[in-house]
Amino acid sequence: MLANLAFFALPLENTIPDPGYPTFFFFERGEWYDYVSLILVTTLLAAGAWIIQRSKLAVLIGFIIVPVLLTIFWWPYSTPGTNSAGWFPIVKQYSALIGSLSLVAMQYFPKLRHKYWYLCLPPIILAVNIAEAVVRDFQCYNIHGVDPSQGMATWGGSWNIMNGIAGILNLLMISGWVGIYVARNKSKAIIWPDLTIWWIIAYDLWNFAYVYNCLADRAWYSGVALLCACTIPVLFPFARGSWIQYRAYTLTLWSGVVLTFPHFMQDSAFAHRSAHNPTALFWVSFVALVFNLGVFIYHAWKIATTHRNPATTEVYADTRASRELVERTAPAEVQSEVAARLASTGNLPARRAGRPKRNLE
Q1: What pLDDT was estimated at residue 356?
Q2: Keyword Lipoprotein: yes or no (predicted)?
């Protein structure tokens, strides 16, 4: 079976030239300081997101003052002649920034938490970002060499199709945004219980495969480090449930770093390139597709058996992980709403469902 699967990865194997540097399976071997740099970047991004989540001053400095100053005085001059040149990286930076500020607004303007249309913004922004990457994966299927739009070596193949499908499945599993709330503790974390750890892993596998396929020589930092920075924290109680906030904030911070220091990933001593290994390209996308398909099948089964509408209620509110998260972090009114929505689908006795107090408009 493995031989049959590997067959689909073979047609380009002889057309992808040897990179000309020592490699492991996924990346070049590099130097010891490449690995230290990976850990440092991951730690700083996660720490930056943690601080901004908790501090208005950090929001003001990191998301308003610094980006404005850099836009005027630095970014127009730092990127020409690099892979980060042009208007597109600037647009990506500000799209990430707008997404982050929309979450900040939910933290500090309580009325927005009661607006259904505003609760729809996080899933819309997330879905658009996934869809954009899916389109790019499909486009890269026909690129075999230096991508003129990125200035990087890109090798299209069956992996692009597999991962594009994985991204579509991941997008279709976004659910339960009506259950987004702000934690009652000092962190004011944005909690989205329906983005389960299984969905997060599926997203990470898909997103890493996307970066590895389409931005290969950036995948060490823009793939491994960036995804670890938003996923590792949510494995611990202090950040559990707030993946969307860590993802948005770390992406915004990293996009700014790339524009400010464009040579860091391109040709500095810390640049860590892809192995451009067709077998690795195939298996990364194959695993992403299989995992997303498995999670999608379970997600569809869950919706079908509970009769829950992902747009109007949480799909996973009855799971142990979701219940414990809500009990530990949600205000009383939110807990009442969750119980009421569960009761409306026949999954919780009505006597346990308090009257909803946060009426969504």
Answers
A1: 46
A2: no
